[in-house]
Amino acid sequence: MRQLTYLILFALTSVIGQAQDAQxxxxxxxxxxxxxxxxxxxxxxRMSANYRNQxxxxxxxxxxxxxxxxxxxxxxxxxxGLLASHDRAGSGSLASTSISLQxxxxxxxxxxxxxxxxxxxxxxxxxxxxxxxxxxxxxxxGAETTLEEGIGRSVNFFDFGAxxxxxxxxxxxxxxxxxLNQPTESLYGRLLxxxxxxxxxxxxxxxxxxxxxSKKKKTAVVAFNYKSQGLYDQLDFGAYYEFDxxxxxxxxxxxxxxxxxxxxxxxxxxxxxxIGWNQGPYKVGYSYDFTVSQLSIGASAGSHEISISYxxxxxxxxxxxxxxxxxxxxx
Length: 331
Prior knowledge:
Elements: H1 2-16, H2 31-34, E1 45-54, E2 62-73, E3 78-89, E4 94-105, E5 107-110, E6 113-128, H3 136-141, E7 154-167, E8 171-178, E9 198-209, E10 218-229, E11 232-243, E12 246-255, E13 267-279, E14 282-291, H4 297-300, E15 303-312, H5 315-321
Antiparallel strand pairs: 1-2, 1-15, 2-3, 3-4, 4-6, 5-6, 6-7, 7-8, 8-9, 9-10, 10-11, 11-12, 12-13, 13-14, 14-15
């Protein structure tokens, strides 16, 4: 009966609930997902992929996939991006798949300072797989299908977003807004369930460290990302230490000084450890989230995340890129 109750509650919330976007601990490894203004910030062309398994100890938790391609055209000072994302929860019963087109224009303010306004257009499909759910009428009638299937199987919608990025030799600051039109995502047409607007503010600073006796390049990076969507908000902040080809980082997620969650306890979420490998055009990163919220790491088993990217450019664009590479964190 407990499992049956969970299934019924899940089915109801999938119909009337307001969803939130998936998130990544390594959000700078999924930079165009964070902000369309990052489209075209590589040396010329870049392909990347991200995988996140959140709370694997909870049955039918959250699994997210992300794949992106972006390209910079120096002749027209423009960056172009293509982004595909898929998020699955509840035995694969509730799924969202989206494809986005992105455009960013690069404006040189000073020799080493640039502003990049950007736009994003997205098509999304949100669906529920009833074959993986069991409803009371199926148990009573002994049938393979349920009468609940009539409430709807999927919904398609368009939305758009925008962003901007300011960067110089050692720092970057960005703001992005997704779901500006707040589209309806209800699987049941008579219900008004809008996708809340998501606002993100992010940035960081890179410090060069003296080489000393070592010939390896060493840098330290401090960075943050604040985002708000609907009734919820959070802050990620942390630091990286980069000593080629390795990067290690420690991050914290939460807003402990605020109790906007409405339950009267501090808004803690997790600590995350990140390790990355950067060799030539290749980057590979792994992170693990240690849950510190009321959920506890014993109940959730934390979260695992993997990122991969590859960059390439012709000789001419590679020379030009040395004057405009953004000092953004790699993972």
